[in-house]
Amino acid sequence: MDLYLFTSTLVTLFVILDPPGLLPVFLGLTRRMTRKERNASALNASLVGGGVILLFALFGRQLLAYLHVSMPALQLAGGLLLLLVALELLQGKATETTEQGTNVAIVPLGIPLLAGPGSIVAIMLAVDDAGDPARLLAVGLALAAAMLLVYLFLRFAGIIHRVLGTSGTTLASRIAGLLLAGIAVQMSADGVFGLIALS
Question: Does this model's pTM top 0.85?
């Protein structure tokens, strides 16, 4: 297994998924739930998000081919969308959520907060770069590890939030926003160069 690919994919997904930044949103959405219901929501959100990301990892290339969208175009679009998310994290804008009887584990936690354009593009690029089965295994394990970390953060959200406090959670979210901005700019630049190479 390619340890470097595993580590780089895991770090990229962790920064994009931003589990510390999800804590206030998760706690707000589940504030009326019992501990058992909150734990179930944490598990379901992780499974839904991971499942959607995995589907794009397996069939995303075919979907793009059907829609006649090139990978550099999606890469550039994903980078721009990631940059918007990064700016929101850096500026501390809270994610607007509503409770209308919808299963919050599916919407908005599973989609689009976890399985959003950033994580989908990132996993597709990782699969595209992998090539051989051993490297694909590294990408798959990195996705599983990232979703496990997300689950652990959500599962113990109440404890983590109490330990970090409001300021600590905010600081973690700002740092994630800064790192995400760097990833977004690099992804956009790669997309531009890819489009130039295709033309």
Answer: no
